[in-house]
Specification:
The chain has helices at about 15-20, 25-45, 65-85, 105-115, 130-150, 160-165, 210-220, 230-235; strands at about 5-10, 50-55, 90-95, 120-130, 175-180, 195-200. The longest helix has 23 residues, at about 65-85. It contains eight helices and six strands; from the N terminus they run βααβαβαβααββαα. The chain has about 240 residues and is of the alpha/beta class. A six-stranded parallel sheet has the order 3-4-2-1-5-6, with helices on both faces. The protein has one domain (about 5-130, about 170-220): Decaprenyl diphosphate synthase-like (Undecaprenyl pyrophosphate synthetase). The protein binds 3-methylbut-3-enyl trihydrogen diphosphate (2 copies) and magnesium ion. Magnesium ion (MG) binds near residues 11 and 180.
Length: about 240
């Protein structure tokens, strides 16, 4: 089975560079280049939605030099991906808090979001200045406002309605991959990962190629997803 929604926690760029006596920024550049073929491969496999965790709300703790380098790299990357993926009718979206991103990057994000909004062949969702706690808090605030305005009745709140208040209303994650050896989510899509399968690899992101991705898919296909039931396949929820 091909998962519908795959999330990748892109990790290990810094260590990849340090191991080669290079600057951390060279690791980020190598990671960004690696994404080109990898994303292509993932959509070619028939995966419809790919969420890439590339900058967390917590990553602002890093030096100004690293944060500025990453933001410049993202600006170039988003424009490049817009050219590459709009030809293939892939919609590009962004999940994350707008503040304190610079206006320059927000303009690129808004432009690409608008220009690709009708594309139907798949979704590439960049999680930038993303944190799951913030996403859930932001959703709760909007829900309170809409309840007070009479737009919704909070008594009718269920998981489907709640999802509509997240940064993007996407189906739950089927598979979460984390490169770089850490066994944690680091605040990635806590709501959407409720029933995801997890795949952790020591491979550092710049080395996580198409073959490595296929290993993750093989592992996913060996899992029995029960969703709390006894035999999910037979019950046909
Ligand atoms: C890249 O990996 C992901 C980002 C947060 C931009 P890291 O920069 O966290 O690389 P390591 O974990 O230090 O090796
Ligand atoms: C997680 O990586 C965030 C992203 C990949 C964007 P980090 O390198 O920031 O995570 P920690 O600090 O090891 O938890
Ligand atoms: Mg890291």
């Amino acid at each position: 089975m091909i998962p519908t929604h795959v999330g990748i926690i892109v990790d290990g760029n810094g260590r990849w560079a340090t191991k080669r006596f290079k600057n951390r920024s060279e690791g980020h550049l190598a990671g960004s280049k690696n994404l080109d073929n990898l994303c292509q491969h993932i959509f070619d496999k028939g995966i419809k939605i790919l969420s890439l965790y590339i900058f967390s709300t917590e990553n602002f703790k890093r030096s100004d030099e690293e944060v500025n380098y990453l933001m410049d790299l993202f600006a170039r990357k988003f424009k490049h991906d817009f050219k590459m993926f709009s030809k293939k009718e892939i919609r590009i979206m962004f999940s994350g808090r707008r503040e304190p991103l610079k206006q320059e990057i927000l303009d690129i994000i808004d432009d690409i979001t608008l220009k690709t909004k009708d594309n139907q062949n798949g979704i590439l969702n960049f999680c930038v200045n993303y944190g799951a706690h913030m996403e859930i808090i932001d959703a709760c605030k909007k829900i309170v406002i809409d309840n007070n305005n009479g737009k919704i009745n909070v008594n009718n709140l269920d998981d489907k309605l709640f999802s509509k208040y997240l940064y993007n209303d996407l189906p739950d994650l089927d598979l979460v991959i984390r490169t770089g050896g850490e066994l944690r989510l680091s605040n990635f899509m806590l709501w959407q990962a409720a029933y995801a399968e997890f795949y952790f690899t020591d491979t550092l992101f710049p080395d996580f190629n198409e073959k490595e991705f296929d290993l993750a898919l093989d592992s996913y296909n060996k899992r029995e997803r029960r969703f709390g039931g006894i035999d999910y396949e037979k019950k046909n929820f």
